[in-house]
Amino acid sequence: MPQPPLPVPSALHVLVTSVQSDAHTWNLMFLQLTVEELGHRVTNLGPCVPEALLAAECVRLRPDLVVVSSVNGHGFADGLRLIAGLRSRAELAGLPVVIGGKLGVNGEEGAQERGAALVEAGFDAVFGEETVHLAGTGALPAADGSRLFRSYLAALPAGLPC
């Protein structure tokens, strides 16, 4: 009989979701499995989550991190609305929130500017197709995006108040 994985002492509670206009689910399952395999607990809100519902769930669940995924190319516009809603609530001001995936409909055209704008709007990191933007460090090549995401997770302390 398979045994459940042992809890990791510093395991995070990670909330995984998509932007409101994105109906894809496979990316959310991939993210959930990846984060769980790293020893963290995941709540997957599924696709097409309205910003108000996401904010309410963040207040109710108090996750250590929110990971927002976009596959349809509307991640930039939806992400700006989403982060504005989260950051407008005092109780969520310190909650780490990252976004990634396909953030624009014109491929990588403007990706640098989109990443920088999303960080400026309040995301702690942006994991784009070609670049990764970490708040306070600027753009890095996304060729190492998976490693950067894992490093980002490993650096977050669990259980901090938002």
TrEMBL record:
Q: Which InterPro entries match?
A: Cobalamin-bd, Cobalamin-bd_sf
Q: Which Gene3D superfamilies match?
A: Cobalamin-binding domain (3.40.50.280)
Q: Which domain of life is it from?
A: Bacteria
Concerning Pfam families, the annotation shows: B12-binding (PF02310)
Q: Which residues form the B12-binding domain?
A: 11-147
Which SUPFAM superfamilies does the record match to this protein?
Answer: Cobalamin (vitamin B12)-binding domain
- This protein's name: Methylmalonyl-CoA mutase cobalamin-binding subunit
Q: Which organism is it from?
A: Amycolatopsis magusensis
